[in-house]
What we know:
This protein is α/β, with parallel strands linked by helices. Helix content is 25%, strand content 21%. Helix 8 packs across helix 9. It starts with 24 loop residues before the first strand and ends in a 41-residue tail after the last strand. Keywords: Methyltransferase, S-adenosyl-L-methionine, Transferase.
Amino acid sequence: MSKKQKLELTWIGKENRPQLEPRILLEDPARCYHAAHRMSDKDIFDNRLIFGDNLLALKALEAEFSSKVKCVFIDPPYNTGSAFTHYDDGVEHSIWLSLMRDRLEIIRRLLSEDGSLWITIDDNEAHYLKVLCDEVFGRANFVCNVIWEKADSPRNSARQFSTDHDHLLVYSKLPDWIPRKLARTDAANSIYANQDNDPRGAWLPGDPYANKPYSKGQYKITGPTGREFSPPAGRFWRISEEKLRELDKDGRVWWGPTGNARPSIKRYLSEVGDLVPRTLWSKDDVGSNRTSKNEMRSLFPEDESFGTPKPERLLKRVIEIATNPGDLVLDSFAGSGTTGAVAHKMGRRWIMVELGEHCHTHIIPRLKKVIDGEDTGGISKAVIWKGGGGFRYYRLAPSLLEKDKWGNWVINHDYNAAMLAEALCKLEGFTYAPSDAVYWQHGRSTERDFVYVTTASLTHEQLQQLSDAVGPDRSLLVLCTSFRVMGINAADAYPNLTVKKIPNQVLARCEWGHDDYSLQVENLPKEPHKPGQRSLFDGDET
């Protein structure tokens, strides 16, 4: 392979990309919830719980939240085979990769410049997903593969190996992303001691040698007992002789209990900082699958719906590393709602997306307990959680266009005037901002560029009135069902107006009426196998 060739993951149907409709979100006040009173000035009320297909929801968020999300955590279906009984290996694997690719591309656009993505996955797809993420985010933005010890006991019924871990793939928006350090733990501090009653407190002996050549790093030094010390062959002192003697005079060099050992430079506990995150996360530190199941049982004693929820301590560590208080966290595979619950307790803003009915039967009741201060499990005690804040509930609007009884695309009858204006603003790249004072200002792209949406059929006189009202220093996009300007060149007659018909203007933009892009792929049609076509695994990587 030449240096210019790029390693690329290929699969059946990779070239097919959905033309997603940027739906609007409809708030349902009856399902929104907030605390009865403020607990503190830091309470957050504008969190969002979105019910609907998560790919369409991500697209719906893109215009408002592009480059604003600090941390994305997702726990997608692992594609273990149980959901693909109707597919051969190549096809189900291809469908899964395409569905993940489409989501990852929008997630990348949502991430802030200092944002990061965290994906839990098992061995079945982890390594394909790694290459896919390399393509979407760039290989330079791969941060690490965290290994999470998810099992707290071996599974002796396993045919080959008892799987004890999951992967947590971490990607950043830009290569210079720096994770936040973790607070020191008792275990980390326990290795420090004070063997010589140093008044500066506990310390740890540091290796005085280095492998890197150092011009002042080759010398002999005599210890308290007269014994001479030199660096081992091929190694060097880390510091100059002058500096070592200076530290020794200050009591910062340890020569062993009898003064006859090689010198070690003391590292004082009082002078070390917080901990750089490591890539091995044990069940004792962040919990296991059993931990999370117990957390769910405490919230829903009679329900065993969630087989592998994630423990709150796992999410706490992710959010600690990736965000600061007040930052925005997104989970587009909300599941049991752990991400939102933990982010809420930690003072982060959050957005969650869930299509399943457990959005209503589990996530909302769970969040209500968090907000009311009734959830005392998980990380509540660790963060001293007392309740507060709230969230707003949204559902995806139906498709803007639907077919009438003759098979023609028309504006969906469920859309009122405000919904139509908001939807077309989103499609045309305008910010929906209806004016109370000026009827034709439904949205704007700049301070001088506006959009007006109407289902009326406009006459020449009406368009002329609009043009006069807009004036020569502003421009207006007019979206209407039809307009009549017989014998008139509209571009000359209304130079500050651009008049277009709906739905004709948007027909070719999107896949209209498509409501389900979910990863519940058992309902998707099977890919027909063409004669002579290679299977996916005849050559995945080229």
